[in-house]
């Protein structure tokens, strides 16, 4: 064998080796801008509930993982373009998203809520504590009516491409003037500036902001779950297929489901949820 | 490629292109007055006045348009005192914030374009006016300004096209312009390539129109 062939063969062997290592490495995409689910610390490192949970799940699965940042509005397209293999970004499991991607079982769930600045005329809204939109009973319909009246003519702000936007545009609370933002940070900024009369997001996103900024942001109205708000937050994964990559994706879904089971049994999810949310949001 | 998505999103995107054109034309309208004013200030002999005009153009040409929009929209909105002034009525609206940012930005570039056009006017033209006994004021309004505008047409055409593309940043302050609506469609269909190709095509078509209008004007008002 001459030196030329040797070189080529060794390069090929090397590539094969890299290919195998690469196959075991999983990339997980997160937004890094939705505390306490996922965010960044002062030096730019990703932190939060899902970042820690992702590390735990990877340890259980025995995979080597890297967590990468991706803007919310490009999250699902980036997954489809194989920029990463899984989404853990506070993404609720909804029928709309399931047309394009698939989800693991839910690992955590918490409610959505409206928020206003203290002193807003919406503060005294009389509704029940929380409503579940999956079964629209008389009480739920009554609350939706109250909300429809209260939100009429108000500017309601929310993040683009979220379950919250879907709900506001679903017609459940009439025709509302919705303004959408790229990130939750920007929603918070415009809520405090007064450009938004009221905002809708995960309840913890507002309480976290109120705690950290000291701004008088307060929750109003009922908390929301079910219906347009989906069925908990799960790991988003590409739909499996019959080719090699499709099989790998299908396997990844199984692995995640198994790992979530294990993490739940060991109390890891509850522990992390209490640490980041202040209550047990695990499911 | 999802051709049917491209077809169904086309009318929505064309509707949004109207918003883009409105943003562009209002910004250019305000921008040209700002530009003319500052170009004249730049030619002023008083060092304070021309330094001030220079500073303005330096500031707005030296920082990204996105940063300018963010400062005007999110930045000013956080200043409590500012929110208590009458200006807040205007600045509360994302639409006007975007127009103000665009007008100030294009105004800075326009002032530079016009200034250099003023400076390239051949002294002979002005002298000719003077020898005919025309007053300085009339020379300025009837000779210098029209000649300067003609001289600056090619450069200004470029500026219009740059500004047209710049308006896509309006979507960052919640406006539903062409880019904003494209992003909105993507947020429910998760198909960025198809939607952005259609949006890009519309931008390209608008560029084509602007380019040809400027070309026509250049021919019409050529000196030859």
Structure notes:
The complex is a heterodimer of chains A (283) and B (224). With 283 residues, chain A is of the alpha/beta class. Chain A has ten helices and 13 strands. Chain A has a six-stranded mixed β-sheet, with helices on both faces. Chain A has a five-stranded mixed β-sheet with strand order 4-1-5-13-6. In chain A, helix 2 (49-61) packs across helix 9 (244-265) and helix 2 packs antiparallel against helix 10 (268-277). Chain A is elongated and about 85 Å long. Chain B has a single domain, classed as MetI-like fold, CATH 1.10.3720.10. The chains are: A alpha/beta (283), B mainly alpha (224). The interface between A and B is medium-sized, with 22 and 16 residues.
Give unreliable regions of chain A as ranges.
none
As for the CATH topology of chain B, it is MetI-like fold
Question: What is the CATH level 1 assignment of chain B?
Answer: Mainly Alpha
Based on DSSP secondary structure assignment, what is the total number of beta strands of chain A?
13
Shape of chain B: flat
CATH superfamily name of chain B?
A: MetI-like
Largest sheet of chain A: 6 strands, mixed
- What's the count of strands of chain B? 0
CATH architecture identity of chain B: Orthogonal Bundle
Q: Calculate Rg of chain A over CA atoms.
A: 22 Å
Number of domains of chain B: 1
Write a brief caption for the model.
The complex is a heterodimer of chains A (283) and B (224). With 283 residues, chain A is an alpha/beta fold. Chain A has helices spanning 3-24, 49-61, 75-80, 95-98, 138-151, 163-168, 184-193, 203-213, 244-265, 268-277, and strands at residues 25-30, 39-40, 46-47, 64-69, 86-87, 102-108, 112-117, 130-132, 155-159, 177-181, 198-202, 217-225, 233-237.
């Amino acid at each position: 064998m001459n030196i030329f062939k040797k070189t080529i063969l060794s390069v090929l062997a090397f590539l094969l080796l890299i290919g195998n290592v690469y196959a075991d490495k999983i990339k997980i995409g997160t937004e890094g801008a939705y505390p306490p689910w996922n965010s960044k610390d002062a030096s730019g490192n990703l932190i939060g509930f899902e970042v820690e949970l992702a590390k735990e799940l990877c340890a259980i699965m025995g995979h080597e993982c890297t967590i990468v940042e991706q803007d919310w509005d490009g999250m699902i397209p980036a997954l489809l373009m194989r920029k990463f293999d899984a989404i853990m970004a506070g993404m609720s499991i909804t029928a709309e998203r399931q047309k394009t991607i698939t989800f693991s079982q839910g690992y955590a769930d918490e409610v959505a809520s409206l928020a206003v600045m203290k002193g807003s005329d919406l503060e005294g809204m009389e509704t029940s504590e929380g409503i579940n939109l999956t079964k629209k009973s008389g009480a739920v319909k009554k609350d939706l009516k109250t909300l429809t009246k209260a939100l009429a003519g108000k500017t309601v702000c929310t993040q683009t491409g979220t379950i919250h936007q879907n709900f506001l545009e679903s017609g459940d609370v009439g025709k509302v003037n919705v303004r959408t933002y790229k990130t939750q940070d920007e929603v918070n900024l415009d809520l405090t500036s007064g450009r938004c009369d009221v905002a809708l997001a995960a309840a913890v996103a507002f309480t976290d902001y109120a705690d950290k900024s000291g701004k008088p942001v307060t929750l109003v109205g009922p908390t929301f779950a079910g219906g347009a708000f989906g069925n908990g937050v799960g790991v988003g994964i590409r739909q499996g297929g019959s080719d090699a990559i499709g099989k790998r994706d299908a396997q990844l879904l199984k692995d995640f489901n198994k790992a979530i089971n294990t993490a739940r049994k060991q109390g890891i999810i509850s522990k992390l949820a209490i640490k980041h949310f202040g209550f047990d949001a695990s499911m | 490629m999802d051709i049917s998505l491209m077809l169904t999103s086309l009318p929505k995107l064309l509707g949004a292109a109207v918003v883009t054109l409105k943003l562009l034309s209002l910004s250019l309208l305000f921008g040209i007055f700002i530009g003319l004013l500052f170009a004249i200030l730049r030619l002023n002999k008083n060092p304070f006045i021309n330094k001030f005009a220079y500073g303005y153009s330096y500031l707005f040409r030296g920082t990204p348009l996105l940063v300018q929009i963010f400062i005007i929209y999110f930045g000013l909105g956080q200043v409590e005192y500012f929110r208590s002034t009458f200006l807040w009525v205007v600045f509360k609206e994302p639409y006007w914030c975007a127009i103000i940012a665009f007008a100030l930005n294009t105004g800075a570039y326009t002032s530079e374009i016009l200034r250099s056009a003023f400076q390239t006017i051949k002294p002979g033209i002005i002298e000719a006016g003077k020898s005919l006994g025309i007053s300085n004021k009339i020379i300025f309004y009837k000779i210098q300004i029209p000649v300067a505008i003609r001289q600056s047409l090619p450069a200004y055409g470029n500026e219009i096209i740059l500004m047209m593309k710049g308006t896509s940043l309006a979507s960052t302050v919640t406006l539903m312009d062409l880019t904003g609506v494209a992003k909105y469609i993507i947020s429910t269909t998760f198909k960025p390539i198809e939607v952005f190709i259609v949006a890009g095509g519309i931008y390209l078509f608008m560029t084509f129109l602007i380019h040809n209008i400027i070309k026509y004007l250049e021919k019409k008002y050529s000196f030859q």
